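anyone seen this seq b4? input:
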Amino acid sequence: MDIRTIGTPSLLLDADRVRRNAARISDIAKRNGVRLRPHIKTHKCVEVARIQTAGHNGALTVSTLAEARAFSRHGFLDITYAVPIECGKFSEAIDIVRNGVKLSLITDDAETSRQLDDAARKAGVRFDVLLKVDCGYHRCGVEPHTPEAIEIPRRINDAENLNFAGILTHAGHSYNTTSKEEILAIARQERDVMVALAEKLRSDGVEVPTVSIGSTPSISCIDHLRGVDEIRPGNYIFFDAFQATLGSCSFDDCALTVLAAIVHRDRGRKKIIVDAGAIALSKDRGAVEIDPACGYGHVLDLEGNGTGMRVESLSQEHGTIHVLNDEVFESLKVGSRVRILANHSCLTAAQHSHFNVLENGKIVDRWEIHRGW
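predicted toks r here
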């Protein structure tokens, strides 16, 4: 298949870059003696997960129970559901465990842990449960210095049908930085907060089997991982314009682009319209603190080379690009195609049903994306 003839908008996935990105983080994990449990929410694709976990134990992190079901059907049986569990999802989680999956859950709520223990006891199953810790992101998790950071692990540890599996965090605030130095400071904070809490729990008689950390920026920049058992980055497998602008990678590492066709030209306004809008690209603005003109994606030619243009505005199925160079404008006819490097590959991939896999500029395969909740 040829990228000049397939339907648009569609996802193009550079398989060589995927393998290279996987090897990079795999090497970091192995050099630091930690387990790799990649977050598959970025791609939701079995073939990509197999590339990520090659040479490792096959453990995964998911963001939905639908992902857990889909990947378990393909032989991934050690899964952490990294969103705090709530009672409305107990029965589905129980069904997944009954189907032979080691499903680990997270919580930052004492009452939920009690309810989960009751539900697990009635169902005759056991759950591994990790404490969700706030290392500075302030989205979810208990503050590490609070009584709850000790009380909830004790409660889980004493529960009849729960196993306290350790502590888990996500340094999402690493995305709100403007330099590698700032990323490194947050990476160290993430690690040090978690190692200190693990030491405190152990000194209070609570065993901590796993200290689990990891965002793509923090793991890409971390200096060491002493005291950590597991890392869970996800976006690194594709990277994107946000990560490249942030400094987690180079633009040449970005593996995912959206193929779009030009559907309208306006010579007077020096603009073109492509058929990739908010549904195809997402509306993530990316690293606006570093690049205020980032728009909604970098416009590339069909070979993947940057053009300097950006997708400046979006409606549902339309993307607007201004073309100030007359020669370039004349080369972009209705029906011509461009590739767009989106700001956030995770959100972009989730809008589509499959990846068109590129090898040496040719589409060689089609890999399904498992969506849903």
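The chain has twelve helices and 18 strands. The radius of gyration is 22 Å. kinda curious what u guys think
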